[in-house]
Write the structure tokens for this entry.
Amino acid sequence: MKFYSLEEGERLVKAARHSIELSIISPSFKREAIESRLSHFDQNHGIFVTIEHYPTKELRGCIGFPRPTASLRTLLVEAAVAAANEDPRFVSISHLEFEHIVVEVSILSDPEPIVAKGEAEIKRKIKVGRDGLMINSGHYSGLLLPIVPVEQKWGVSQFLENICLKAGLPPDGWKNPNARLYKFSTQVFREKTPSGEIEEVEFE
């Protein structure tokens, strides 16, 4: 699904990098300063910002909003700052690391409930490379972006097992009648090198 042109994607990724940089220099920076330069992006989309170490591609932070709670320009800045400083799996990005990271922005479609009769039909409705997954079950929830099963070389069964593990559920938690599965698509833009050329990622 295409939401934006490559030129627009470049603006989003550069704004995310700038937000990360300012959060390192001055944690209390005025986020409105970046948002005001993104007035074109007033649509409502979910968004994730992912940070990886270059060139190892080691994950360094990933935070986002699966459902739009504000305009894209606002959520972009929030997600970028949070990915750099608030991902509980990692320490905050330091100024020494800043020149050795690549930034990726994923724009999400609205989550679509997976309605199916039986486990086989659920699997048929999921396509690796196209779909991301969300699961809600009681107080547990988890999300995996579409690019994850591609990078990990998972099939649909492994994808379902790992979305459960991400949510803190047993691997077969998706089979629970009370579990709610959703799928969504993304448009992804990322830097090829730190502060370098920006590309649209195709992974189907």
The longest strand covers residues 46-53.
